[in-house]
Specification:
There is one protein chain. The protein is built from 11 helices and 20 strands. The protein has helices at residues 14-25, 50-58, 62-68, 107-118, 169-173, 236-243, 245-255, 302-321, 327-358, 362-377, 379-389, and strands at residues 7-10, 30-33, 47-48, 70-72, 74-79, 85-89, 102-104, 124-127, 131-137, 142-148, 151-157, 159-162, 178-192, 206-210, 216-220, 225-231, 264-277, 281-282, 285-287, 293-294. Strands 6-5-14-15-16-13-17-20 form an 8-stranded mixed sheet. Strands 8-2-1-12-19-18 form a 6-stranded mixed sheet. Strand 18 and strand 19 form a beta hairpin. The longest helix has 32 residues, at 327-358. The structure holds flavin-adenine dinucleotide. Flavin-adenine dinucleotide is lined by residues 10-16, 33-36, 40, 44-47, 107, 131-132, 163-165, 169, 268, 270, 289-290, 297, 300, 302-303, 306. Residues 10-16, 33-36, 40, 44-47, 107, 131-132, 163-165, 169, 268, 270, 289-290, 297, 300, 302-303, 306 line the site of flavin-adenine dinucleotide.
Length: 397
């Protein structure tokens, strides 16, 4: 890595912004390029697991996040058929982490905090309206092709990181395959300010709700309740119908039949995939976050995995920059550690989490609920379950 050229990062989402902050705090020059004119504010991931909070705490941004977010120290698996509830109390991992809870906070709050903090570092620059389209690399660095409102430019970096999300231009330009599959159903999400906690007894802020016909996830973010359902919507017309008022009101009323309409603050319908890039590294180019791996949102592992990638890659780039680590060896270790975890742990768990919810066989559901309730009652099993769901074993490599 040559001392004069910055690390160029494509994409200021949670993964790219976190990596930029990590590098800036360690004195490594960094140029963060964001395609949009401002940081995107769409409602997407909203769960921060304990290891992510620890990493963000080391970067000095956990405290302002916690001040904005909702602390969730227990979560539930509910069976609508029997009314049974298996509740997992996250205090069972209090001796393992500084943050024995999930923080519910919109991901755009994190990137907004980082944007403010980054301004304090002379070695860091964030440019909006910069769409990374292509790159060429040589022995000394990477020439990054960018489209900007002022026209096309080529920017020089010592290294290029693709943090540009699931449709990553960097991954495509590097010719890296993105194997896996796309689920046939889509996920429908609606946010409402209705106070579900006042109508369901002892409801926690995060709930996985089994139902023979209509399973869902109910979670409260820092701002509103959000409900997520799988839906079959193969055509545009079906998608439009699912997103329409009539269908959404019907779904929400099936969940709780209150008088009058629900006030729906936000709705979205999106495709869900399980994919991992064939490699995370090609020469001086690396992938982090959704550019390298995508999975269904059950368990909230997608964004968290991206944050863990960012801190792992950050450590390798800082050590390389300081001359303490051979570049190729450091990047090979990043690829091995993070890609294997995505392929083994995150893919397996998120696929299993979805299977656990979706069986329409009542016997399978009853068995699942009995198993979860037994785990929740047994302190050792409950701790193992919570540790796994909190990604406690798969973050630090
Ligand atoms: C609709 C939706 C709902 C979701 N809900 C959940 C959820 O409930 N729970 C969960 O865990 N996960 C959820 N996810 C996934 C989660 O949002 C992602 O895992 C997370 O955002 C990944 O962060 P990232 O930084 O890798 O990528 P992104 O957040 O996608 O950020 C990429 C950034 O790069 C920018 N960019 C893109 N292309 C370029 C380019 N060529 N040049 C420069 N900049 C570029 C984008 O504008 C964006 O700012 C959801 C995703 C979607 C799409």
């Amino acid at each position: 890595m040559t001392a004069q050229d910055p690390v160029v990062i494509a994409g200021a989402g949670p993964a790219g912004a976190t990596l930029a902050l990590y590098l800036a705090q360690h004195g490594v020059p960094v140029l963060l390029l964001e395609r949009e004119a401002a940081l995107p504010k769409d409602l997407r991931a909203s769960t921060f697991h304990p290891p992510s909070l620890e990493m963000l705490n080391e970067l000095g941004v956990a405290a302002p996040m916690i001040a904005l977010g909702l602390i969730v120290d227990r979560y539930q698996y509910r069976d609508r058929g029997t009314g049974e509830v298996a509740e997992f109390d996250m205090s069972v991992i209090a001796d393992e982490t500084l943050f024995p809870y999930r923080l519910q906070l919109e991901q755009y709050e994190l990137t907004a905090i980082i944007e403010r903090v980054l301004r304090r570092y002379a070695c860091a620059e964030l440019r909006f309206g910069h769409d990374v389209t292509d790159f060429e690399q040589d022995a000394d660095g990477v020439s990054v092709a960018v489209t900007t409102p002022a026209g096309r430019q080529t920017l020089r970096g010592s290294f290029l990181v693709g943090a540009d999300g699931a449709s990553s231009n960097v991954r495509k330009a590097a010719g890296i395959g993105f194997g896996g599959f796309t689920y046939h159903e889509k996920f429908l999400v609606a946010s409402t300010d209705f106070a579900f906690e006042q109508v369901f007894e002892d409801l926690s802020w995060v709930n996985y709700v089994a139902d023979a016909e209509d399973w869902c996830v109910m979670l409260r973010t820092d701002k509103a309740w959000r409900v997520l359902w799988p839906v079959d919507a193969a055509s545009n017309a079906e998608a439009e119908r699912e997103l329409g008022d009539a269908a959404l009101q019907e779904r929400l009323h099936r969940l709780h039949d209150k008088p009058g309409d629900y006030r729906i603050r936000h709705r979205t319908l999106y495709d869900v995939h399980q994919r991992v890039a064939r490699t995370y590294v090609k020469g001086r180019v690396a992938l982090v976050g959704d550019a390298g791996h995508i999975n269904n949102p059950l368990g909230g592992m997608g964004m968290n995995g991206g944050l863990h990638d960012a801190c792992n890659l950050g450590r390798k780039l800082v050590a390389t920059w300081r001359g303490g680590l051979d570049r190729e060896a450091g990047l090979a270790a990043y690829d091995r550690q993070r890609r294997e975890l995505a392929a083994r742990f995150v893919q397996e768990h998120t696929i299993a989490n979805k299977r656990l919810m979706e069986s329409s066989n009542v016997d399978v559901q009853r068995e699942r609920q009995r198993d979860l309730m037994e785990k929740a009652r047994d302190p050792e099993k409950a701790k193992a379950f919570v540790m796994e769901r909190a990604m406690m074993h798969c973050a630090w490599e």
